[in-house]
Every structure is written in C-alpha cells, then in structure tokens.
C-alpha cells in the first residue's frame, strides 16, 4: 500500500474542504491531490523514475506539503532536509542520498552546486522559479508500490558524527499514521492544525495523520519561533492542534504574555528532547492539560511511547518525568550490555520492534546491522519501567557519566538544577578526572545575572546525592545546538576545556 492512499481516501470524503492554508492561499483536498499528481508528471519529465530520490532543502511554505507528498504518490523517495543546515552539510547528504532532483531556495543553489561531491550531479531547482502546476482534474491512483519500498529518508541530527539516513518504507509510514490516530492524538476533520516546527522534521511526519483525517493544515512560515505571533495565529484562526513542538518552544510560550483568546487550542504535541519538570508543570498550569508528550526517534517515527494530555492533569512527579506508555503496535524491551533483558525496575537500553521501525540506514550496512541486531532497534537510550508500566527515559547511552564506577545520568542533574529560578537552561556532561575517571560538569545559561557557581552548587547540595553534584560549572550566553535544536555536548566539552585552560572565571 502506498502511504499516499490514506490521503486519497480523505480526498474522496473531503474534496472541497481545505487541505493546506498559507496566508490567504488555500488548496482544497481535491486540488491538493491534483497538484501532487501534476508534480508526479513534472518529476518524470525531469528524469525521475521509481525509487529515485527527491531532496527538499526548504523553509516552511505553501509548496512544502505538496512537494513532501508528491514524490511518495509517484513512487519516488522524499528526502527532506532541515532548512537550518549549512549548504555544505546539505551537499554531504546529497552525496550520500544521490538524489535525482534537489528543490531549494534560489540563495542556496550556487553554494550547494559548488560543494557537491564528485560524480553527484542532481538537477537543482529554485523554489522561487517553480510555479505549482495546475491540478490534474482526474488524477490516476497513487503509484503501485511494495509495502517495504522506501518512501522517506530521514537524516538523523548527527550530534556525534555524520548524519545517517533512516529509510522509512510505506509500511513504516502507514503503521506510524494508524498508530498515531489510535493513541497518540485523535485528529478529527474539523481540526485546524498549525505547523510551526520544520516540515522536514516531526511536523512533516504529522502531516500524514492530519491529512488522512481530512483536517485543515496551516503552515506557519515566519522566520524563527515567535511565541506571541504563534498564539496570535491560534486566536485569529481558531487553531485546535499544534502537532509538534520542542520543549524549548514550550518554555518560549511561557515567556509570552498570558491571554484568554486561545480556547480553541485542544492539543499540543511535544517531544524531541526532555522537558524539565517545572517547565511542563508551569505550562499545564497556564494552558491546561492540552500537552501530549511523545518519545521516539527518526528510526521509529511518531513515537515509541506517549503520555496523553489527560495524564498531565494533577500529575505527580513520577508521571510527568516519564515518557508514558508504550504505544499501540510497538514492542519495547530493556537490555543490558550483553543484549539480555534486565530485571524489572532495572535500567537498560531501550529496544523497539514493530512495523514503525525503519528498514535500515541508507547505504550503511554496518550501522544498520549494529542498530537492528537481533531484530530489534537499539535506540541508544537508557530507560526504566516504573511500577505503573510507564517508560522513563534516563539518558542517551553515550552521554552517561561514569564516575568512580557509578553511572550518573545527566538528566537527573539537569532536572535538579533547572528547578533553580535563576537558571534558563542547563546541560550536564562528563569531563576527565584523574581520580574518578570522569567528573560532572554543567553548562548553565542564567536568567539571573547575579547567579554564580556557588549558588548553583549550594542548590545541588540540597537536591542531589553527593556523588552526583557537579565539580565544574560553566556559564554560557547560550548552549551550542545543531539545526534540530539538540544540544551538542561535544562542543560543550570543547568550551569547558578552553575555559579551563584560560582560567576563565566563567568556569570553576
């Protein structure tokens, strides 16, 4: 089954309803399908054949949804790339994916072409020069594909090295969409769905269930994330769902002025990183239990586990610190370093099995065999099931700090320090220690100019076991992050060593 067939069902039910809206421009479901079909003809005219890749390096905009869906409709493979990447990084991905066609903005065409690897010569088209074709009035059905044919290559964020392309098949995306509607978030036809995050990432994945349901999708294309403007849009257009935000965006919502005109908003799905306890409590207190947490990764899209909005209401700390319950259609086990199941209550690497799990990494058999050994996706995350059956994600396996032979999870330290009112952001990481092997360092972005290391360490003394307390505190104006908003711990370590060598007073 072609995953696009789920949208084709919505076209039959909701032909004249708005599928996509951007400013004053709209496409009905009938027109959306017709434009996607016409783009399929355009792909063929540009030499694209079944299985070829189409790379999208685009900011959010009106054309993005059709360019995202049209390749899959035609039996091609879409490769969406985060618009915040540098053209050199995009060129590396193009060298790996070898797309037949690249669609990007005019300002990037020359830069990408100049740094493409030898032998890689896709046609590069500027979106500004591409007029959406007139809809095909009586489009043919979506291309007949095999369930395990690639549909989408999702390049990982690459926090520890070069990104890898997670190959998602039509089967993967159908399972992900159905399971999302079953238990992550029940979109309905009357929803107005505001996409504020990059469509190349989680928000694009959430187009699938939203379109399958026949909802209206509103594309937010303002540069950066401006919480007041987002909430203005919610109020003006009676938005009911924001399908994917990062925890940092929730913090930004809390910084916006309180308002009483956003009662239409019934759901905000968040994930992609951990959220600190006091932030989600403050968000629920202000906006109500409209937040739905998901835990997942590009290799198993649209989540491994979820914590629905109603469980955020009057929730205890253990509930809010968890990633909720394993989702429908997914199996999860926790294993030790020998890939043996851990005992109940013990920590272990989170492993996942089910139709949502990727086919493998694009042209990377070594990484594929390592990640999918034994028929399970090894996520690299350490987790624990609590007595209520909820999954708690403790940390990334390679981020665990081992001090004196004891495992210390950075998230525990971050949660404790983030509770200090003078702290905006905090990240914990390990640094070499002659006596203990590793010791704990923290990088802090302060809200309070008077906050110093002594205040942070005093706070830790009251909230953390002695062996978990940081030995080093580094103050930074902001945390280094990649294009997906994930903190780059390797850059933090470099900043720490540089500051330590220079005897910088911002570190001690």
Report on this structure.
- Helices cover 31% and strands 26% of the residues.
- With 508 residues, the protein is an alpha/beta fold.
- The chain has 2 domains: 5-391, ANL, N-terminal domain (Rossmann fold, 3-Layer(aba) Sandwich); 400-501, GMP Synthetase, Chain A, domain 3, CATH 3.30.300.30.
- The protein has a 5-stranded mixed beta sheet with strand order 11-12-13-14-15. The protein has a 4-stranded mixed beta sheet with strand order 2-1-10-9.
- Helix 1 (5-13) runs parallel beside helix 8 (207-213), helix 2 packs across helix 3 (64-73) and helix 10 (247-255) crosses helix 11.
- It starts with a helix and ends in a 7-residue tail after the last helix.
Q: Can you tag this structure with a few keywords?
A:
AMP-binding_CS, 2 domains, AMP-binding protein, Rossmann fold, 16 helices, disordered C terminus, GMP Synthetase, Chain A, domain 3, 25 strands, 31% helix, 508 residues, globular, four-stranded mixed β-sheet, ligase activity, forming carbon-sulfur bonds, alpha/beta, AMP-bd_C, five-stranded mixed β-sheet
Reported CATH architecture of the largest domain: 3-Layer(aba) Sandwich
Q: What is the CATH homologous superfamily assignment of the largest domain?
A: ANL, N-terminal domain
Write out the strand line-up for the largest beta sheet, numbering strands in chain order.
Answer: 11-12-13-14-15
Question: Helix- and strand-based class?
Answer: alpha/beta
Give the overall silhouette: globular
Report the β-strand fraction as a percent range.
Answer: 25-35%
N- to C-terminal distance: 58 Å
User: How would you classify the quaternary structure?
Assistant: single chain
Uncertain runs = 502-506
Main beta sheet strand tally, sense and closure = 5 strands, mixed
- What is the CATH class of the largest domain? Alpha Beta
């Amino acid at each position: 089954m072609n995953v696009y067939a789920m949208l084709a069902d919505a076209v039959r039910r909701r032909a004249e309803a708005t599928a996509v809206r951007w400013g004053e421009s709209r496409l009905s479901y009938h027109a959306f399908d017709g434009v996607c079909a016409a783009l399929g003809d355009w792909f063929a005219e540009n030499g694209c054949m079944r299985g070829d890749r189409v790379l999208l390096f685009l900011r959010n905009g009106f054309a993005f949804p059709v360019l995202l869906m049209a390749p899959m409709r035609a039996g091609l493979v879409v490769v969406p790339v985060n618009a915040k990447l540098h053209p050199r990084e995009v060129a590396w991905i193009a060298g790996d994916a070898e797309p037949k066609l690249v669609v990007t903005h005019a300002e990037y065409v020359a830069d990408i072409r100049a740094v493409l690897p030898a032998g890689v010569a896709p046609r590069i088209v500027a979106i500004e020069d591409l007029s959406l074709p007139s809809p095909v009035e009586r489009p043919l059905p979506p291309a007949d594909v095999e369930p395990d044919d690639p549909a989408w290559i999702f390049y990982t964020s690459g926090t520890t090295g070069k990104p890898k392309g997670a190959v998602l098949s039509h089967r993967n995306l159908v399972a992900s969409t159905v399971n999302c509607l079953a238990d992550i978030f029940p979109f309905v036809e009357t929803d107005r769905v505001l996409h504020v995050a990059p469509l190349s990432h989680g928000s694009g994945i959430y187009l699938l269930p939203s379109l399958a349901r026949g909802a209206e999708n509103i594309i937010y294309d303002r540069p950066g994330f401006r919480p007041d403007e987002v909430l203005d849009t919610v109020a003006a257009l009676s938005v009911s769902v924001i399908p994917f935000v990062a925890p940092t965006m929730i913090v930004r919502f809390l910084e916006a002025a309180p308002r009483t005109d956003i009662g239409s908003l019934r759901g905000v799905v968040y994930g992609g990183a951990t959220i600190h306890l006091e932030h989600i409590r403050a968000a629920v207190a202000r906006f109500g239990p409209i937040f739905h947490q998901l835990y997942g990764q590009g290799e198993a899209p649209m989540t491994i586990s979820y914590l629905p909005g109603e469980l955020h209401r009057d929730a205890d700390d253990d509930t809010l610190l968890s990633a909720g319950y394993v989702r429908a259609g997914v199996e999860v086990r926790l294993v030790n370093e020998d890939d043996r199941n851990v005992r109940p209550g013990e920590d272990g690497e989170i492993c996942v099995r089910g139709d949502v799990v990727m086919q493998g990494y694009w042209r990377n058999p070594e990484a594929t065999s390592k990640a999918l050994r034994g028929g399970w996706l090894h996520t690299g995350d350490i987790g624990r099931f609590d007595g209520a059956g909820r999954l708690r994600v403790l940390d990334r396996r390679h981020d665990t700090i081992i001090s004196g032979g004891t495992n210390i999870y950075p998230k525990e330290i971050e949660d404790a320090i983030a509770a200090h009112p003078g702290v905006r952001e905090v990240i914990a990481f390990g640094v070499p220690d002659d006596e203990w092997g590793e010791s704990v360092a923290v990088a802090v972005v302060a809200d309070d100019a008077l906050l110093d290391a002594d205040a942070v360490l005093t706070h830790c003394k009251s909230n953390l076991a002695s062996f978990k307390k940081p030995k080093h505190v580094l103050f930074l104006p902001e945390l280094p992050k990649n294009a997906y908003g994930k903190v780059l711990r390797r850059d933090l370590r470099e900043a720490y060593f540089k500051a330590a060598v220079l005897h910088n007073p911002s570190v001690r």
